[in-house]
Amino acid sequence: MEKDVKTIKTAADQSLIETIFEGAIWRSRFIVILAVVFGLVGAIILFVVASFDIASIASYAYHGLFAHPHPKNFHENIVAAIIGAVDLYLIAVVMFIFSFGLYELFISEIDEANGKSGSQILAIHSLDQLKDKIAKVIVMVLVVNFFQRVLHTNFNTPLEMLYFALSITALAVGLSFLSKVGKH
Hints:
The protein has 184 residues and is mainly α. It has two domains: 2-153, no CATH class; 154-184. It contains six helices and no strands. The mean pLDDT is 81.
């Protein structure tokens, strides 16, 4: 009988220690809040910076349209600046998706996202879904960045034009495969 009491005490002590330890491990997931909050702050900063870039290029375009003659490379500068702003907006979207995904995976589901006004675009139920959504937006950032760089490239030889055509073909094929990922 004495042996049974010791076994029960040891089991009770072990389950108390186990309960405390498991509770501490479970609550440690809240450290993810740092990534969520600073990811959102980063996204907001990127949205503000991109918006100021658009406002700045709008001012440049307005003054350039009424200045005779136009500044050198006027149209190219406007297109490049707008593409740069789109690039920043896309990176901000990556930060938002990252923050929302981490929150939903580690902290709690976002109740408003599941309601009538909710969107399924931010619904993330696994790390693979988060990774896929972020990867698709990052690829779009790279595509936009590619076109921004191509805008300022001078092609002097037919071989350079061939490389350019091949890179556009590779990009189109890659985007085609990317659009098929996740569809059944």
